[in-house]
């Protein structure tokens, strides 16, 4: 049985009301706007039109990923020196609290959450419900760009665990390998983005979109506990997560973290795995947690 607590959940998520209170009180919070989607990867236009006051725009493709290559996948991890340059441009200093949000239930903001945690930033939280929740509490938006003095933070890798293709291949024998893409992509029924359809043999399906409700907020702890226990996750088993390119898998890792389950990211994910013709694939439905919308 998985165990959780309010404190554990609050270590990952921040309510929009808390962010509002902190900003109103003049507390130091670095706020990052990470709007991105497959249909509209450049969210800058939406950011310019209106964002949480003081928020900095983060370009997921440029700031939160290295150059895309076939061998490395569509969103490889950025070089640590490049990520540090971006973090300093956003005005982050050592010890700062960072709040990240988007307009899609945290599915892109979680990439910033994971990367900053991976690079040693201890206090990073996802604004639960993002812009939708901000609007629901009557939060105002400001337009235009935000300019701040450069930050001084120093980043180092290793704050969150990762594995490679070989690690993912060996993992199903001693832990739970989770595929966070849609059920249709997992089954191999469709593949709109990558070179081959299907999933890593032994992986179980748990689509990222099922981590959130219609209000775009993370599901309750009991709901998430039941969801992940159903696919074999328990307190004694290691977990590795992959998706299409390592973006929405970060959301799955955040959801697991809210119930006290640490998980490892396979950054190359299916985009890397499927590009290697020597890697086997499986199709059809193995033990599966049903979900729908397409994910990266």
How would you describe what is shown here?
29% of the residues lie in helices and 10% in strands. It folds into two domains: 6-136, 3-Layer(aba) Sandwich (Oxidized Rhodanese, domain 1), CATH 3.40.250; 165-273, Oxidized Rhodanese, domain 1. The protein is globular. It is α/β, with parallel strands linked by helices and 296 residues long. Residues 290-296 have low confidence and may be disordered.
What is the CATH architecture descriptor of the largest domain? 3-Layer(aba) Sandwich
Strand order of the largest sheet: 1-5-4-2-3
Overall structural class, as computed from helix and strand content, comes to alpha/beta
Rg measurement, Å:
18 Å
Which sheet architecture does the biggest sheet show? 5 strands, parallel
Contiguous low-pLDDT stretches (5 residues minimum) are 290-296
- DSSP, total strands: 9
Per CATH, the class of the largest domain reads Alpha Beta
> If you consult CATH, what is the topology of the largest domain?
Oxidized Rhodanese, domain 1
The coarse silhouette is globular
Order of helices and strands: HEHEHEHHEHEHHEHEHEHEH
Classified in CATH, the superfamily of the largest domain is: Rhodanese-like domain
Number of continuous helical runs: 12
What's the structural domain tally?
A: 2
Euclidean distance between termini CA atoms: 30 Å
Helix content: 25-40%
Instruction: Tell me the fraction of residues in β-strands, as a range.
Output: 5-15%
Mean residue pLDDT: 93
């Amino acid at each position: 049985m998985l165990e959780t607590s309010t404190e554990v959940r609050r270590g990952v998520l921040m309510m929009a009301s808390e962010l509002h209170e902190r900003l109103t009180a003049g507390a130091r919070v670095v706020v990052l706007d990470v709007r991105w989607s497959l249909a509209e990867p450049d969210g800058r236009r939406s950011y310019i039109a209106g964002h949480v006051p003081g928020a900095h725009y983060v370009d997921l493709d440029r700031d939160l990923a290295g150059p895309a290559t076939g061998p490395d996948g569509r969103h490889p991890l950025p070089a640590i020196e490049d990520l540090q340059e971006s973090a300093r441009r956003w005005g982050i200093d050592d010890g700062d609290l960072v709040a990240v949000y988007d307009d899609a239930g945290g599915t892109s903001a979680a990439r910033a959450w994971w990367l900053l945690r991976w690079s040693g930033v201890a206090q990073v939280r996802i604004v639960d419900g993002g812009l939708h929740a901000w609007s629901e509490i009557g939060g105002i938006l400001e337009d235009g760009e935000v300019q701040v003095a450069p930050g001084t933070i120093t980043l180092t890798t290793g704050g969150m665990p990762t594995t490679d293709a070989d690690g993912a291949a060996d993992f199903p024998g001693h832990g739970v390998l989770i595929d966070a893409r849609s059920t249709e992509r997992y089954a191999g029924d469709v593949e709109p983005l990558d070179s081959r359809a299907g999933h890593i043999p032994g992986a179980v399906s748990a689509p990222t979109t099922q981590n959130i409700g219609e209000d775009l907020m993370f599901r309750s702890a009991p709901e998430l506990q039941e969801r992940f226990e159903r696919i074999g996750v328990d307190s004694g088993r290691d977990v590795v997560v992959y998706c299409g390119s390592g973006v929405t898998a970060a959301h799955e890792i955040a959801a697991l973290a809210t119930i006290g389950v640490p998980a490892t990211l396979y950054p190359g994910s299916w985009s890397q795995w499927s590009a290697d013709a020597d890697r086997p694939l499986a199709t059809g439905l193995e033990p599966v947690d049903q979900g729908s919308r397409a994910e990266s």
